[in-house]
Each structure stands twice: as C-alpha cells, then as structure tokens.
Amino acid sequence: MARDLNLLSMAHFEAVARLGGVMRAAEDLQVSASAVSQQIKLLEQSLGVKLFHREKRHLRLTIDGERLFQTASQAFQSIREVRAAIVRQRETHHLSIRVSPSFGVRWLASRLSDFCLQNPDWDLRVDATPSFTEFDTEVVDMDLRYGEGDWEGLHTDCIVHDFVFPMCSPGYLARLQAISDDPREQLRHARLIDSVKAYYRWDYWLPRNDVSGASMSYPCRFDRSSMSVQMAKDGGGLILDSMTLAFEELRRGELVPVSTEFEVIEFPGYWVVCPHRHVGRRAVKLFSDWIRDKGSQHMAEARHWLDGRGLRTRFERRATFAGPDER
C-alpha cells in the first residue's frame, strides 16, 4: 500500500541500480555508503525479497530487483524532468505584450531577436491585435499603441516619433511627372490610397498644403497601413502614411517621396501603454528601456534619411484623432 512505500529507500535503490554500485550511488546522493546500504536493507526487509545478488564487491539485480528498477527508474526520471521544468519556469522571466498589427509586423518583429539575444531567459509573448488591453481583467504587461498618448488613467511613454508624407513607387511618380512638373498638379491627377485609421489622412493634409481639386473618392481604402504600403509599392497609387512602417521600402527605393516641396509631419505616434501599477515591474522597465533605445536609433536613422533627400520636417500634434488605432 502507498503508506508502506518508503520513498527514501526507493531513491537509494534506484540510484544503486542505475549507477551500478553503492559507492557511486552514495556520491550521487551525497550521503555515506553505509547510509545507502542501510536503506537497501530496509527496502528488502519491507518487501520481503532480495533485490540484489551480492557477489563479493559486485551487485547484480535479481528478477524482483529488475522489475522494481524498471518502474522506479521511469518514475524518478519523470520526477527529475518535472523538477527541471519547474526550476526553469521559476528562473524564466515572463513578459506579455500587445501591439498594433502593422507596427508589430513592420517595425517591432525585425528588432525582437536583439531583445531575445540580450535576454535569453525571458519568456516573451507578443499578440499583434487590434484589441486594446483591458488591464483590469486581462493578464498583459503592456501595450504598444499608435495614437495621441492620452489614454486616461494609464501610464504612457512615447517610444517613436512618426514621420508622415506622400509617397509612391518610382514608376508611379514618373507617370505623375509626365503629366506636370508641379507636384500639386500631380496630386490632382493621382490615385489616392486611404489608410482609414491613420492619424493624418488626405482630407486633413491636402488643404493644408494648398492642394485643391484632388479626387477624394478613394478607390482603395485599407484599415491596415501595411496593406496601403504594399499597394503603393506595387504602383497602385499614392499614400499619405507612416515612414516608420514604410522605412524599409523607402531605403530600398521601392517607395519615394512625391516632392521635397511638402514638409514632413513629425509627431509622437507610438507609445508604451500600461497601468501605473505595472511601471515598477522589472519586465516592463527592462523592455521599455530597450524599445525606447530602439526607437531613438530608428528616429536618428529616419532623420538622416530625410535630411539626405532635402526633406524638411514640421513637428505637429493634432487636436483631433481619427479613431482608435489599430492599424
């Protein structure tokens, strides 16, 4: 019966059978050889059978001993594996993040390997989802969100300033330039692609840049900037969108600015968002510091790219916002 099972004796027996001798078992268990021998004797007495044939200094399992060892070996191996898993879990740091879909795919994903290399013991979960976290009911450490940064009752920290300007493929720009040398006239003939959840949209941008007569019918509307960027890259029209999300296409020359006559709008666009009670968590602080550093690197590279093409920036914060992020 279970109450008669002496686990200490079983552990000593399993070690002797597995390692092939009392001395080796004693070293493995960090006890004396006499203690091991005593536990084997007690186990044999409780079972009423011999577990080993004793031949001078050599021990050989009996048939009963072999049967017991097969079962004990599997059981103790399972226990060792579970113990190791528990220790690993205890020593692993956990971090759960939600991120705006396009930002997660087009900006964050390519940088996460650096964080994982720096923090190999971290268990990281990232959900790229349009759903904003309900921190009172969901187990999430932080959100990475696009917007104004004015989420009431939550801690916000801007990590990336965005840069917004009209862009398109080189081929599409050549078609517009064949129509006119005037960039405003080009825009009047352009196929405008609408990113419906972008912070800055054509209906705001066009009148502020003295462009009238442009078609606002928007033959293509996307609720993800990643889709708008792909459409523009494929020559489908003109986008007014995020340099943060389109930077790789811009660097490769797959997208180009429409004109240096238009100022680039700079605004604080991407944020770490979490409850104030989460700010002191080691995981939140470590990741926030890391992503803030990556954001600073990105902004320096973006400004260098813009300067190299003669594009001027204008810092701006709008009083109104088109709606909740989730590009």
Strand count, sense and barrel status of the largest sheet are: 10 strands, mixed
Class of the largest domain, according to the CATH hierarchy?
Alpha Beta
Portion of residues in beta strands equals 15-25%
What CATH architecture of the largest domain would you give?
3-Layer(aba) Sandwich
Low-confidence region ranges: 319-326
Overall form: rod-shaped
**What's the domain count?**
2
**Percent range of helical residues:** 40-55%
- Alpha-beta classification: alpha/beta
Distance from first to last alpha carbon: 63 Å
The ordered string of helix (H) and strand (E) elements is HHHEEHEHHEEEHHEHEHEHEEHE
**What is the number of E strands?**
12
What is the fold named in CATH at topology level of the largest domain?
D-Maltodextrin-Binding Protein, domain 2
Rg from alpha-carbon coordinates: 33 Å
Mean pLDDT: 89
Continuous helix count = 12
Protein model, in words:
With 327 residues, this protein is α/β, with parallel strands linked by helices. The chain has two domains: 2-91, Winged helix-like DNA-binding domain superfamily/Winged helix DNA-binding domain (Arc Repressor Mutant, subunit A, Orthogonal Bundle), CATH 1.10.10; 93-327, 3-Layer(aba) Sandwich (D-Maltodextrin-Binding Protein, domain 2), CATH 3.40.190. It is built from twelve helices and twelve strands. Strands 3, 4, 5, 6, 7, 8, 9, 10, 11 and 12 form a ten-stranded mixed sheet that branches. The chain has a two-stranded antiparallel sheet with strand order 1-2. The protein starts with 6 loop residues before the first helix and ends in a 12-residue tail after the last strand. Residues 319-326 have low confidence and may be disordered. This is Transcriptional regulator. Residues 13-62 form the HTH lysR-type domain. Belongs to the LysR transcriptional regulatory family. One of its GO terms (biological process) is DNA-templated transcription. Pfam families: HTH_1, LysR_substrate.
